[in-house]
Amino acid sequence: NFADGTNRQILNLSSVSGSRKAVLHADGGVLCRAGMNNLSLLRTGYFIDYESGPISLYIDSTRMGEIQLSATSDRLLKKEIEYLSDMVGADPSANALNEVLQWNPATFKYKKRSIIPESDTHLGFIANDLVEVSPECVKGKGLEDGYDENNTAEAYSLDEIAMIA
Predict the structure, then answer these.
(1) Overall number of domains in the chain
(2) How far apart are CA 131 and CA 48, in angstroms?
(3) Which residues form the Peptidase S74 domain (predicted)?
(4) CA angle (65, 22, 53) in 5-degree steps
(5) Going residue by residue through the chain (165 aa), what tens digit of pLDDT does each one get?
(6) DSSP assignment of 10-71, as one string?
């Protein structure tokens, strides 16, 4: 028991033989800040879904969003590089500039949704606006009216790598 009288979970990290992979063993779940669907004695459960598409973070049954990783862009990490400007008959710079000039920056706040509070004001792009102009910069299928606020897996998101490429 701990000094406060509680009997807390012990986490045992062990490496898998022959690799750098570590396994987290937790009996009964992982304790974190309380969420909306608090049905467990452990307060709140969270999990990371990485088996089907983008890596998603859930608290209780609420999809908090995707975990974004930054891709590197160093030339030495790439191969088979072909510049569009070197291709015969291609003028990609004119087309790319025309596309980017159609992007309409906006200020906005994210709505309160389940355990996620309303956000401060952000400056950025609305993926729904970019999907027509630059579909390669948008991921997802888009939400429909009446969507489940706890499961926004189908929501549009921006592909930052495509936007800066």
Answers:
(1) 2
(2) 27
(3) 73-165
(4) 30
(5) 444 555 555 444 444 555 444 445 554 445 555 555 544 444 556 677 776 667 788 777 777 888 876 666 677 777 888 877 777 666 666 778 888 999 999 999 988 887 778 889 999 999 999 999 999 999 999 999 888 887 788 889 898 888 886
(6) --EEEEPTTSS-EEEE-SS----S--SS--BTTB--EEEE-SSSS-EEEETTEEEEEPP-PP
Beta partners for residue 13, in sequence order: 24
Cβ atoms of 26 and 8 within 8 Å: the answer is no
* Amino acid (1-letter code) at residue 69: L
Whether residue 122 sits in one domain with residue 55: no
b/e code 82-92 from CB counts within 10 Å (16+ = b): eeeeeeeeeee
6 in a structural domain: no
pTM for this prediction: 0.56
